[in-house]
Specification:
single chain, alpha+beta, seven-stranded mixed beta barrel, five-stranded antiparallel β-sheet, 10% strand
């Protein structure tokens, strides 16, 4: 393909003239319009333009029939007026690509044609080898195929005729002649560019109108996007219940129960007697699974040679003997068997722990079937035997045992046969036939073989495969089918089915968490675990039978709230079914119930506890642990709880009650705590008994706001030059008085400075002292000098002043010590000390010291001394003082 060939532009220019003549948009803008009809019109215009060149169809040159075919470029095709099917297809595809469209080159046996996407899409791969994919896209009006040779001949074919012929080239009967289809868009995305042939030797060709046929454009068909949808009617609209069923029951080929595909989670096992195997499993026998090499023995003999020598009969006998030894042989190597068994074991264990259902089955027997209108055969398992894998250690290997679930016939296959083929198997629908040892496998397979014996391409084979299968959605579907009316008795289900577009009738209003203590008595709520008001409201709603959704992020107490719900519902005589997608959620709640003593009231019916033996064991345990409950302690505890709750609620009410000023104590405390360190303590001018109203509070706030504005204008008031001015109203007279006072102050200040200088000179103080410190210290000095006792300090200003100062400091120290001693002797004594035997006390004191038990004796003496002295011991210094009284 050479979309940049100059002749391609000539063809597109001629095609634009065709579009203009038809009154259409002349721009080749690809898929910008988003309309399939527009793409169809551009392709039709390019077709009509090429028809105008009167090209003649020729067979490939004989010289290239073995080593390849010479391809003519667009310019060469237009110059020579000849081209093979491949030349014409590539030229037309080049014009489509240059117009912004996505062509395909389709190759069949000995022929080539062009495909075109009507919407901006592609095949997903460069090469397509499945003609069925092209047919499905053509049926959906997403793709058209153009027979390029129809533009030759006399007369040439119309565009619609070329499309009809192109579609006929890929009909189902011609699949054998289909080779490949090349998606040009995907090729360009992979950087597959047109070949550089060293330049174009042929100039652009203009259309030869005299020889060509001038076709007018045909009307584009009406595609699905151009239809105006009619308003929906009630007739024919499926019931919501049917929609649910259709979504749950997967009857597509994606379902492994209808289209079983091999994989790493499937192990083929050799078994000549499926019925005998099922009987052994039902009797409790376990099977070891051996790899392929074990069939030939472990003595080094060639397995394939031995199998050829034994032939089929001998091989089957060997397999039967292995089953009697409780061994099953897989059709994989030892390493592959270990990997696949480990994977199956992990998948089955995870599904059982998280979902509580078994997914590991032995698929006994397969139906090979073909969907209507198709030739491809598919395999569907018939009998599904639930099994489990066990191992004692990692190296001991796996053992296959029967699971306690019921053996079942493929339910999805039954409904697919009934729906798509109107075929029923009553033997399977009424219940599986049984024999003396379990399910009658031979009878089941025989019944299916009898049903399909006259259907061409259908057959039953006796394969045995260990694999995983999930019935979760099927069980939900069966529940909808069998219990529709019972489910409708539930308000939520009835609303979703009958009135999904209406608001759900909530019934009784949900208790507000703020009012929970006002409307619910403690005796009505049985919550052994702590809960806040919102969680308590949810527990009350559950006890009252309300429908609601409880949601919250992890760690917000959902499992704890569910535990309280279960406890409260049990106390009200209700039964509770707790369902979860994950087993972990069930285990968390069960552990909480066990911790509060309600574990014996719970019956586990999930995971390993769902087995019959486990259920009976739980019932036995609950029966033995039942206890007769008394209400006396419960009543007393509830009364005490109610008293304390009311007391606490009264405190809360007082905190949040609005006062005369519109604020609550809680808000006031919060404001004080938040702003405690932001502002200095400001004394308020009113007493504690003053009560402010809302208007007063607003007035105070307005005043504070005015102060704030003033402070922003003048700055801080601390140390301000006008801090001492108490005038609150300004007037011209006050200003004149204020300025006059300032002048008088200046005059007085000058006089003070002069007097201060004279004083400093008289007492010997330098001017720097009083200039820096101000005149106030000088005033204090003058007051001191003129005091009457100032004359006593004259000696300190003469000679020997240092010696006098030292003497005075020593005297001050001695006076302090004397004062301290006097304080030790002073005190308030009890007059009973006069009657005490002081000599005896002194002797006891000294004896205690000699015996080195000062600690105990001191305590006894202290107690005795405290009986006489009210503030301090009766004796100071460790000895009695007879001079105290």
């Amino acid at each position: 393909m050479r979309p940049t060939d100059p002749s391609v532009d000539v063809i597109l220019r001629d095609a634009a003239e065709k579009l203009k003549k038809a009154g259409k948009e002349t721009a080749f803008d690809g898929y910008r319009s988003g309309k399939k009809a527009r793409v169809w019109e551009m392709a039709d215009a390019i077709w009509a333009a090429m028809v105008g060149y009167a090209i003649t169809y020729v067979y490939p040159p004989a010289s290239f029939e073995k080593s390849g075919q010479l391809i003519r470029g667009p310019s060469e095709v237009l110059e020579r007026k000849v081209g093979t099917c491949l030349d014409l297809a590539l030229t037309y595809a080049s014009c489509l690509e240059q117009a912004g469209l996505h062509p395909l080159v389709v190759l069949t046996e000995g022929h080539a044609l062009v495909g075109l996407w009507l919407s901006d899409t592609d095949c997903g791969t460069v090469v397509v080898d499945d003609p069925q994919m092209l047919r499905k896209r053509i049926q959906l009006d997403e793709l058209i195929l153009v027979e390029s040779t129809f533009m030759t001949g006399n007369p040439p074919g119309r565009f619609k005729q070329a499309l009809a012929q192109g579609r006929a080239q890929v009909t189902e009967g011609l699949d054998g002649k289909f080779e490949i289809a090349i998606d040009v868009k995907r090729a360009r995305l992979l950087h597959i560019r047109p070949l550089d042939l060293g330049g174009n030797k042929h100039p652009a060709q203009a259309p030869d109108v005299a020889r060509g046929t001038d076709f007018d454009l045909e009307a584009a068909p009406v595609f699905e996007e151009d239809f105006t949808p009619s308003p929906p009617t009630s007739a024919g609209v499926p019931d919501r219940l049917e929609v649910w069923k259709a979504r749950l029951l997967d009857l597509s080929l994606k379902n492994r129960l209808l289209n079983f595909k091999e994989g790493k989670t499937a192990i083929h096992l050799a078994c000549g007697d499926l019925g005998g195997l099922e009987d052994l499993l039902s009797s409790g026998k376990g099977f070891k699974i051996r790899h392929r090499a074990s069939v030939a023995g472990e003595d080094g003999r060639d397995a394939a040679l031995l199998r050829d020598r034994l032939k089929d009969d001998a091989y089957r006998m060997y397999i039967d003997e292995a089953i009697k030894r409780l061994e099953l042989h897989a059709d994989v190597t030892e390493d592959q068997l270990v990997v696949r068994l480990t994977e199956l074991y992990r998948v089955a264990r995870t599904a059982f722990e998280e979902g509580g259902s078994n997914v590991l089955f032995l698929s006994a027997g397969f139906l090979k079937w073909t969907p209507a209108g198709r030739d491809t055969a598919y395999k569907a398992p018939l009998l599904l035997i639930p099994v489990r894998l066990e191992r004692k250690s990692v190296r001991s290997g796996f053992q296959l045992l029967l699971h306690e679930d019921e053996i079942r016939f493929n339910p999805t296959l039954i409904h697919m046969l009934r729906q798509d083929f109107h075929m029923s198997i009553p033997e399977m629908e009424a219940g599986l036939p049984t024999d003396g040892s379990g399910v009658d496998v031979a009878k089941i397979l025989r019944a299916v073989k009898d049903r399909v014996k006259d259907i061409r391409g259908w057959e039953v084979n006796d394969e045995l495969v260990l694999t995983t299968v999930s019935f979760t959605k099927y069980l939900m579907w069966k529940d909808l089918v069998d219990r529709t009316e019972a489910l409708k008795r539930n308000g939520v289900v009835r609303h979703l089915i009958d009135t999904p577009k209406h608001a759900y009738e909530k019934g009784e209003a949900f208790v507000s968490p703020r009012e929970i203590d006002c409307v619910v008595e403690p005796a009505q709520v049985f919550m052994p675990l702590s809960a806040d008001s919102s969680q308590t409201a949810a527990v009350v709603a559950a006890a009252r039978g309300k429908d609601f959704v409880l949601f919250g992020p992890p760690g917000t107490g959902k499992s704890q709230t569910i535990t309280n719900m279960i406890a409260t519902c049990l106390a009200h005589g209700k039964t509770v079914l707790f369902v979860s997608q994950k087993t972990a959620a069930l285990e968390v709640v069960q552990r909480r119930l066990n911790d509060i003593g309600l574990g014996s009231y719970c019956l586990e019916v999930h995971s390993s506890k769902a087995q019959k033996s486990k259920v009976l064991e739980q019932l036995k345990h609950s029966w033995k642990d039942r206890q007769a409950a008394t209400e006396e302690d419960w009543t007393l505890a509830n009364d005490e709880l109610k008293r304390r709750r009311d007391e606490l609620n009264s405190v809360v009410s007082a905190l949040h009650r609005r006062r005369e000023n519109g604020m609550s104590a809680f808000e006031a405390f919060a404001r004080v705590v938040a702003d405690r360190d932001r502002f200095p303590r400001i004394p308020l001018g009113w007493s504690r008994t003053t009560r402010h109203g809302v208007v007063d509070l607003q007035r105070l706030r307005a005043g504070v706001q005015s102060i704030r504005i003033a402070l922003q204008a003048i700055g801080s008031s601390a140390g301000h030059a006008l801090a001492g001015v108490n005038q609150t109203h300004w007037s011209p007279a006050w200003r004149d008085d204020f300025l006059s006072s300032i002048e008088e102050f200046r005059g007085a200040l000058e006089q003070i400075r002069t007097a201060a200088g004279d004083l400093g000179d008289s007492v010997g103080l330098p001017s720097e002292f009083w200039d820096q410190g101000g005149v106030m210290p000088l005033g204090d000095l003058v007051e001191t000098l003129i005091a009457p006792e100032a004359s006593d300090g004259a000696p300190l200003l003469g000679e020997g002043s240092e010696r006098i100062l030292q003497t005075m400091v020593g005297l001050e120290r001695l006076v302090g010590e004397a004062s301290a001693l006097r304080q030790r002797l002073e005190g308030k004594y009890d007059l009973r000390i006069v009657k005490a035997n002081l000599v005896e006390l002194q002797m006891e004191w000294m004896a205690a010291a000699l015996l080195a038990v000062a600690t105990i004796t001191n305590r006894a003496n202290d107690r005795r001394a405290d009986a006489f002295a009210s503030h301090r011991p009766a004796c100071a210094g460790g000895k009695p003082d007879y001079r105290a009284h």
